[in-house]
Amino acid sequence: MSARISLQLENLQLRAGGLPEGRMLIESLNVSIQSGERWVLLGPNGAGKSTLLMVLAGLVQPNAGEARLNGHRLADWAPADLARQRAWCPQFWFDPFPVSAWETVASAQLALSPQADAAQVETTARRWLSEFGVGHLADNDVRLLSGGERQRVALATACAQDAPLLLLDEPSAHLDWSHQALLQARLKRWSSSGGTVLAAVHDLNLAWTLASHALLLDGRGGALAGTREEVLGAGTLSHAYGVPVSQREEDGRRWFRIDLEHSA
Amino acid sequence: MAGSAGWGWPSHEIFWLIRVPRVLAAFGTGAALALAGALIQLVSRNPLADPHVLGVTSGASLGAVLMLAFAAGLPLAPEIGAVCGALGSMTLVFGLAWGGMNRGLSPSAAPGTVLVLLVGVMVGTVCGAGVSFTLSVANDSQLRNIVFWLLGDLNGASLWWPIWAAAGIALLLVWPRARELDWIARGDAWAWTLGVPVARRRRTAIFAACLVTGAAVATAGSIGFVGLVAPHIVRLTGLRHARLLIPFSAVFGGVFLVLADTAARTLIAPVQLPVGVISAAVGAPLFLALLLRRHA
């Protein structure tokens, strides 16, 4: 991922399902995302995190405003060119037919370079599976994997696409603690080599350690974007989630928890 | 090859004018149905889909049954009726589902394809009602012809080349890009983000499936089972990629229907059974045996 990218959102408006009559999710969002940044996307259920990721992937048109990648409107990109710039890892996977884990990972590489050397593609696919701790499952049928294993195959698939911008929808879902740590390490390495990460996350403490920047949606049209220090605080989180969140500082690191005694 | 009046070598004329065209027609029909089944299962992401959900089978059947009931004297009456019915129902399904087929990318489902299949099932249901209506007003002598035709029958299927032509066209349309169908089967929105023109591939695959299904029904009537099961049997042998799955399903479907038809001709000769009876009665247990052995 040597290529640098920049992603600009200008007055971006988003409604549920991308429909004009849909509930207002984001009123007007202006944000600039650069290479080397790790953004977490936070907000309550149904706030529009997945929809926003799909807009950034080019799958859904915003209701107003624009998203620009490297200066060009997303809608003007040819799908094949866009595939070299961003990889999108959806929240849900459904595998109707048997296929091995490494072949799933290889799909992205084969789609981008159909003439690629088959042995090389397989080696790369197996290497990415090992990076996410599922190298030993490379030959297994993806339908027989556990939720966390399938999730890591999906992450390996996104990375193997070798596009600088990773759009990850709940990448930590189903992952145990050790693999959440592995995920953080991989994403930090990705950004330190010039890649960009945008990930929807629900765990606020994971979000803090993972992120350099944060985008917080409140599901009622409001959106707050900035560095993690600017966005992730007891006040902003309490407002967005509608529950009292308290915060504790420790060596520059913030810990969040819900104040159950004070919540209804 | 066995003759229908007992075991032995048929005469030169019977062999070249009857047996060979019939074997070719059987192979082409089985291959076409299996090809259609593989395509529909891939683009609908549904292992239970078969060519008949497209509505084309019922459309072609209605055309053929109408001809058998009201214009049986014409040469090639059921075939002409089936081709018209297939084209008519295809046009109807594509017309009604066109908007949905070209839109509808979603991360977890394939709404465009679901719409096509629902429209197909509905068009098929209406055509099925037409078939039932025609059956109830037909007289006894027409009825036997119609029922045999509906059961799937290669008896008198002398015109073998149209089904080969249809299957050839369908293969040429889908095979060069077959790999992309694997990715669409794993998620059409995801496939789009890899740069696959999902709507176009889906349209082409559904069109090819309709084309070969219509041609198969016109050749041999409505034969079930092959389209649903051939791709699964090929998958059980380890050929999972669409690039292999599609041609090998066709070969398996063709061979299977040739064997089924040979059995249909000879089992209780001189009575000829409809091939659809054999393909279902032998095929389903065969598939179950493979499936259960695999999961034992």
Automatic annotation (TrEMBL), chain A:
Q: Which InterPro entries does the entry link to?
A: AAA+_ATPase, ABC_transporter-like_ATP-bd, P-loop_NTPase
Signal peptide positions (record): none
Molecular-function GO terms, alphabetical: ATP binding; ATP hydrolysis activity
Q: Does the keyword Disulfide bond apply?
A: no
Looking up Gene3D superfamilies in the UniProt record yields:
P-loop containing nucleotide triphosphate hydrolases
Pfam families associated with the record: ABC_tran
* CDD domains (UniProt xref): ABC_Iron-Siderophores_B12_Hemin
Superkingdom of the source? Bacteria
Q: Which SMART domains match?
A: AAA
Q: Which UniProt keywords apply?
A: ATP-binding, Cell membrane, Membrane, Nucleotide-binding, Translocase, Transport
The keyword Phosphoprotein is annotated on this UniProt entry = no
Q: Which residues form the ABC transporter domain?
A: 7-244
Q: What does this protein do?
A: Part of the ABC transporter complex HmuTUV involved in hemin import. Responsible for energy coupling to the transport system.
Q: What is the protein name stated in its UniProt record?
A: ABC transporter ATP-binding protein
